[in-house]
Amino acid sequence: MLLLIRKANGRIVNVFSVGGHLAFSGGDYFPTKFGVEGFNDSLRRDMKAFGDKLCCIQPGLFKTPLSNPAKIMKEKELIWNKLPLDIKKQYGEGYFQKDASKKQKLAKICFNKDISPGIQCMEHALTSLHPHAHYVVGQDAKLFWNPLSRMLAVIQDYCCGTE
């Protein structure tokens, strides 16, 4: 695939998440985004020597059927209910309810409803003569998550409710 892109002086546009900058909760989601971020930067630098371009679009939290908080919490509750009692004890009595409450507050504050900025970034990344290496999309990503990722860990932990 890369050979074809090189022959065409083409470009690759990856879409992942602003979560590649800051893990604002636990689990396996954010480590994968950090990995994609590193892979993307490495590949972009390699491809630059051949005149090819690689861009990444990093959206914040957008209100879509995939990000439906009620659906996500229902799926998490099913997993939580299947966990052995000794594992639940390690997390503590009110862990699930506390985590659910935190996620609901986050959804109310941060969800972007208009997806058109993401589409505009995609169009620019695909058609521009000089596309950006990174596109941070969404008000929450631009004004909160991205700046927060550059702050001290103690501030990040406080803002993410993990202090």
Task: Give a quick summary of the entry.
The chain is mostly helical. The protein contains eight helices and three strands.
CATH topology of the largest domain: Rossmann fold
User: What is the tally of helical segments?
Assistant: 8
- Mean pLDDT comes to 87
Total strands: 3
State the fourth-level CATH superfamily of the largest domain. Answer: NAD(P)-binding Rossmann-like Domain
Quote the distance from N terminus to C terminus: 45 Å
Structural class determined from secondary elements: mainly alpha
**The CATH top-level class label of the largest domain:** Alpha Beta
How large is the radius of gyration? 19 Å
Strand order, sheet with most strands: 1-2-3
- Overall number of structural domains: 2
Q: Helical residue percent? A: 55-70%
The unreliable regions are none
Reading the helices and strands in chain order gives HEHEHHHHEHH
Shape descriptor reads: elongated
Specify the biggest β-sheet: 3 strands, parallel
Beta content comes to 5-15%
CATH architecture of the largest domain: 3-Layer(aba) Sandwich
Kindly describe this structure.
The protein has 163 residues and is mainly alpha-helical. The chain folds into two domains: 1-62 and 113-163, NAD(P)-binding Rossmann-like Domain (Rossmann fold, 3-Layer(aba) Sandwich); 64-111. It has eight helices and three strands. It has helices at 2-7, 29-48, 69-82, 85-91, 95-110, 116-127, 139-148, 153-159; strands at residues 11-15, 53-59, 134-137. Helix 3 packs antiparallel against helix 5. The longest helix has 20 residues, at 29-48. The chain is elongated, with a radius of gyration of 19 Å.
